[in-house]
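Appendix C reproduces, verbatim, an entry submitted by the partner laboratory led by Prof. M.T., so that reviewers can inspect both the input and the predicted structure.
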Amino acid sequence: MPGSLHDSNAVEKSGVLDIPDPGNTLGDKGYPGTGITVPSRKPPGGRLPKEQATLNKEINSLRSVIERAIANFKIWRAVHTDYRHPSPPTRQHSPRSEHSISIP
């Protein structure tokens, strides 16, 4: 999707929610009101009831498996593509002169 969109807007426009029961899909707190199962937010200045805190823990433990798989994929992709190592500069300036030296 071009441009910057909030997670919930992006998922709605992508068609991902066109599945029969989006409630069986887990998401983080960036997907409120989409029908996706997300952890409950703590009320301002308060605490979550024990049942909601327990449910949040279960949701987050399931999501962590997916998040870790995505992170591992990104790490191995970085190793494979070598994108973290920028090309060395092709020109260096000599500290004693105004001349540039081209380095292959």
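The mean pLDDT is 75. Additional entries are available on request from the coordinating office.
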